[in-house]
Amino acid sequence: MDNTVNLASPGRIGTLELRNRMFQTAMGSNHAEPDGQCGDRTLSFYEARARGGAALVNMGAIGVAYPHGLVMRNQVGISEDRFIPGLRRVTRAVQSHGAKIAAQLQHGGPSSTGDMIDGRPLLTPSPPTPSSSVLSGLLFDDEIEESPFGRITHAPTFRIMDKADIALVVRQFADAARRAVEAGFDGIELHAAHGFLIRSFLSPATNSRTDEYGGSVENRARFLVEIISAIRQAIGRDFPLWAKFNVVEFNIENGFTVDDACIVAQLAQRAGVDAITASSFSGSARGKGLVSGSAPMNPANYASYASKVREAVSVPVIAAGRLEIDVANDLLAAGKADFIGMGRKLLADPDLPNKVVAGTPDEIRPCIYCFLCLSEIALDRHVRCAANGMTGRESLVTHSPTKSSRKVVVVGGGPGGMETARLLDKAGHRVTLLEASGQLGGTALIAAIAYEPNGRLVAWLKRQLSKGAVDVQLGSKASLDAIKTLEPDVVIVATGAARDRPAISGAHLSHVFDGNDLRELLLGEPGNADSITRFSLATRALMASGRKLGLIGSPQLIRRASRIWMPLGKQIVIIGGDLVGLELAEFLAHRGRSVTVVDDTAKFGVGLAPLRRGAILDELETMGVVMVPGVHAITIHEKDVHCTDREGVNRAFAADNVILAKGATEDLSLVTQLRAAGFETHAVGDCRGVGYIAQAMKDAADVAATIE
Fold this sequence. Notes:
26 helices; eight-stranded parallel beta barrel; alpha/beta; 36% helix; single chain; five-stranded parallel beta sheet
C-alpha cells in the first residue's frame, strides 16, 4: 500500500480533522453588505468552494475592529455580537458540504484604506518610513474614480501605538476569536502577514521601536504572541488556531527574512498555535513587486522559504503561492509542507479539489494568472475571475438543467463561443457551434502564443466540448442563409471584433502586418485576401511544411520554434499599447528583437488588469523595449516609423517590420441581420465591445443563464 501523502490525503491541524490537504486560502472577496454583515453573495461564494471539495474554506480578512482597520469597502466584520448570526449562516452552509471553515481575523493597521478614506489615523508601531507604490500611477481615470485612490481626500495620519493601544487591539482579537467560536467556525487564522498591523510589528522595515515591542525578533513578535495568548485564554487550548505570516519579504529594504520567520514560527508554536500559514510580501515601488508577494507571477515563488519554516517547527505548515498540482504533491510527499492553500486556482475552478480526488486533473479549469482577481480587490470592487464568469456572482447567476431543450446555434469558436456552447450543452440544450476557421480558439490562439497561460484555458475549453454533445462544425462561415437552414430557436453570436487596418499612412506597405496577417503566419489560417503575399517565397514554403507537420496551429510548438526562427526582422515597431501590443512586445523582446511600442493613448495597458499591467510594463522597460505613449501623426515608411511625441518632438524609429496591434472594434452586423430576420439573438464577447477573455467568459455565463 502506498502511504505517500498527497493532495487527496486526509490531514489534521490540532483537533481539526480534514478530508484532504487542499484549502481555499484566505482571499478577501469584498462581498459583505454595507454594514459588514454576511449576505447571500458572501454565503454563496464560500459555499461554492465547500461544495467543490476543499477540506477547509478560509473566510478571509474579517475585521476585528470594524469599522476601523478595514482594507476593503465591503469587508466582513466581527467586532460586535451583531455579526454572529450572519457568520453562523455562512459556517453552516459550508459545513453542510463536508468542509471545515476558518475565520481569518485581521486588522489593516497602516494599510487600512477604510481609515484613510474616513480620515482616521492609521495604527502603526513606529513612525512610518517613506515608501511608494506604482499602482496609483498605472490606473486609468475610471479605475481611479472607483478605487480607494479616488476617495482618499487627505494625506493619511498615523497613531504610534502606545501600550494602551496595544492592549486594546489584543483584546479586540481575543473578543473576535470568542465570537468566531460562537458563530460556528471550525478554526481561526490570525492574519499577521502582508502589510497589515501585526506584520508591521514583525518586520524591521516598519518597526523601529526601542521598547519591548521592537528591536530583536523576539520583541517584534511580542505583539503576535500576546494576541495568541489572549485568544487561548478566551477560547481554550483545544480549539484550532494558527497564524499566517510572511516567510520572506521581497523588494523591501531591511525586510523580514526567512531566518526571522523561523524564529517567529517557533515563538508562535510555544504560544499555542496549531499550524503556520506561509505567505510573503513585496514592496511595490516597481511594477514587478505587484506580482511578487502572496499571489506571485512566478511559480512556487516562496515555497522554499516555507519549507525552511517547516523544518523549524513541529506543527503543520500550510504552503501557497502559485503551486501547480504536481508541485504541490511533491511538496507534500517530501514533507516540505503539510497542506496547500489555493486562492486563484479555486476562483478559476471551485471544483478543483473534487477533480483531484477523482483523479481527473485534466478536468480542472485553469487559472491564467492575469491578476484580475487581485486587481479588482485593489480597486475596491467585488472579486472576479477572467477564466470563470461565475466567480463572485454565484448567488446572482445560476445555471440549471433546462426543462425544455432548445436548438441553439453558436457562431464563433473563441473562448466566449466555446464557453457558451459548453454551458448550454451541460444544461441540456441541443447546440451547434459554427467556426469559420479550421480550429477552435479564435484570437485567443494568438494570445496563447504571446502569453502561454491563455493556451491552457483554450485547451480546457476544447477538451470540454469534445466530451459533450456539441456539434462543432469547423470551416463553417455563418451567413444568414446558412443559419436559417439550421432552424435554430436561439442564436448566440460570438464572432469577435472587427479588425480593420487603422487609417495610418503606410499601413498597407508589404512589411506591415496586422492581426489577420499574424493568424496566417502563425496559425496557417486565411487572413486578408492579400495577406499571404506579404511573406517571401521561403517563408511561404516553411509555412506549408509547418502545416504538413502539424507545427502551425499549435501555440506551444510555435513558442518553441520562434526562439529559433521567425519571419520578422530584428527591429520591430508595434503600433498599439493595449493588452495585445504589450504582450506581443514581451514575446518578441524575449526572442531577441529590438522592439518599440507607440500609440496615441496617454497610458499603455488597456485590457490588462492593473497588477499585471504594472508587471509587464516593468518587464518591458527592463528588457529595453522603447515605449512612447501619447504620440500623434504616425506614418509608416519603408525603413522606419515617424510620429510626433507628446512634447511636440518629431521622432523616427527604425523598423524592419511594423505590427498593427490596434483597430479592433465591435461588430454587431450579424446580430442585426439575425434579429431583423426574427431570430432570438444574443451577443457574446468582443463583437459587442472589446473586453478580451474576461468579458467573453462573463458574457457567456450571463447569456447561458438566460436561455431556459
